[in-house]
Specification:
Alkaline Phosphatase, subunit A; 14 helices; single chain; alpha/beta; 4-stranded antiparallel sheet; 504 residues; 9-stranded mixed sheet
């Protein structure tokens, strides 16, 4: 690869974007011209997996290059320890002044974690328990609940308002940089909320896809679900009897939200081009996790099926890496962290599990690359959205080559041990044929189970989660009573969340 000056760094992380809903990933319905153009200027990674299929642990894994069991952030209620370095710290060591705009989903007093400045921020409070986020007439639709399917369609999603402000502030940053810092490379991380539910798009974006979005490939009726954990999850989340109208309306809105996200990214890319910054800017686009959009009768994330645990991973750096490439090797989102630091000549994070993708880009058929990725999903006691009373789960996935094993620790709500799931993704990309009980694949299942448990102790994880949950019994009431000030926060106006009436 050619020698180049130190690149600008632009890291973009959206929320809940299924990579299958991008033109560059071969969706023939979605209109994503700006992401497609980004892909044409760089490399698309087709098999990239997040560290956890839920927001906070996924984002902290990406930041630290550590799996949840390493940085001890497993749920949306847990805090990343300020002593754990992030890619922002490493970029700072290399001479950058890393700046963040928008979504990060940090919990607690440390709202920087290595960034020198943050603008706009998240809509949720810095301190858990400080107050409730008010989604107005769309109350309840931001979580994993049936109401998010019932209250779907066209109107306004406050997360779109957030992202419009984030995009505008990003363009302002780029304009200022072009005028005042012509000889200094920037490092900028952007956090966007779309296409996260509420599944409500503007009428124009919704109408673009009305009648055009195909139904799920594998809708799977509730009564056809056989795995005990998935059966419980569907029942717990109210997914037993989702109507065809809800499916069509929700998927249509989701496609509209993706196109709106793409449009905002286009404004940012246009600003880079305007200032002649595209050539030597390393752009990484990804999302914290996917969205199941009705596949297998599932919605949101929280599972290890491909639609939930896979993430988009597009890397563009025209000055150094090839254009228009597609790499199908198995990679982890943690590898994006290591790639960014490698490109910036920044020190690697001491405890990172990430691997730079630059050598793989140079030689996509490299025999030295290990095709493996892990993801974790754990729950905590008292979390009504994800758990059952005091019962909690510790689940983990490994993908190695063409094979994926999903390990469910412990028993279901009836006290029965839960089986793992085993899929051959080359022969069964839709994950329909579970091979866990096939004697012909017993050795493979044992090998993958050993990989899952090699450095991952579910009993220890449960004890740590319960300990952290006990701490929240003090810190949450403290925040409710003392109302600590937010250092970085975007104020969501409940009037920005609504459905149009009528929906015709």
């Amino acid at each position: 690869m050619p020698k180049t000056p130190r690149p600008n760094i632009l890291f973009i992380e959206s929320d809940q974007h299924n990579p299958a809903v991008i033109g560059a990933y071969r969706d023939e319905v979605i209109r994503t011209p700006n992401l497609d153009a980004l892909a044409s200027r760089g490399i698309v990674f087709e098999n990239s997996y997040c560290g956890s299929p839920i927001c906070v642990p996924s984002r902290t894994s990406m930041l630290t290059g550590q799996h949840p069991y390493q940085n001890e952030v497993w749920t949306n209620s847990q805090y990343l320890h300020s002593g754990i370095p992030t890619f922002a710290h490493a970029l700072g060591v290399a001479g950058y002044k890393p700046v963040q705009i928008g979504r990060m989903h940090f919990n607690g007093p440390d709202q920087l974690h290595g960034f020198t400045e943050r603008f706009i921020g998240d809509h949720n409070p810095n301190h858990l328990g400080a107050d409730e986020v008010d989604h107005g007439s769309l109350h309840g639709t931001a979580g994993p609940a049936r109401i998010s399917l019932e209250l779907s369609g066209h109107g306004l999603n406050s997360y779109q308002v957030h992202d419009e402000i984030v995009a505008a502030r990003t363009i302002e940053f780029l304009n200022d940089h072009a005028v005042n810092n012509t000889n200094e490379a920037f490092a900028l991380a952007i956090g966007l909320m779309l296409p996260h539910q509420p599944f409500v798009a503007t009428k124009g974006d919704y109408e673009e896809y009305r009648g055009k979005v195909p139904p799920p490939k594998n809708p799977m009726a509730f009564e056809d679900e056989t795995h005990p954990y998935m059966k419980w999850w569907k029942s717990h989340a109210g997914l037993e009897d989702v109507t065809p109208e809800e499916v069509e309306r929700t998927r249509t809105a989701y496609y509209g939200l993706v196109t709106r996200l793409d449009s905002l990214l286009g404004d940012i890319f246009d600003s880079l081009e305007k200032h002649d910054l595209l050539e030597n800017t390393l752009i990484i686009y990804t999302s914290d996790h996917g969205e199941q959009i009705g596949e297998k009768g599932l919605w949101w994330k929280q599972t290890f099926y491909e639609d939930s645990v896979k993430v988009p991973a597009i890397i563009s750096w025209p000055a150094r890496i090839p254009k228009g490439g597609v790499i199908g090797r198995v990679t982890s989102q943690l590898d994006l962290n290591a790639t960014m630091l490698d490109a910036a000549c920044a020190p690697g994070l001491p405890s990172s599990s990430g691997r730079s993708l630059l050598p793989l880009i140079e030689d996509p058929e490299s025999g030295e690359w290990q095709d493996i990725a892990f993801s974790e999903y754990c729950t905590e006691p008292g979390d009504k959205a994800h758990s059952e009373g005091d019962k909690i789960w510790q689940n983990r996935m490994v993908r190695e080559g063409d094979w994926k094993l999903i390990y469910y620790h412990g028993s279901d709500t009836n006290g029965e041990n839960m089986p793992s799931q085993l899929f051959n993704l080359a022969e069964d990309p839709e994950e329909i044929n579970d091979l866990i009980n096939d004697p012909a694949h017993a050795e493979r299942a044992e090998h993958l189970t050993n990989l899952v448990l090699e450095d991952w102790d579910p009993e220890w994880i449960e004890s740590k989660i319960r300990e952290q949950s006990s701490n929240l019994e003090i810190t949450i009431p403290w925040a409710k009573n003392t109302k600590p000030a937010d250092t970085v926060r975007w104020n969501l106006n409940p009037d920005w969340d609504y459905l149009n009436t009528p929906q015709e």
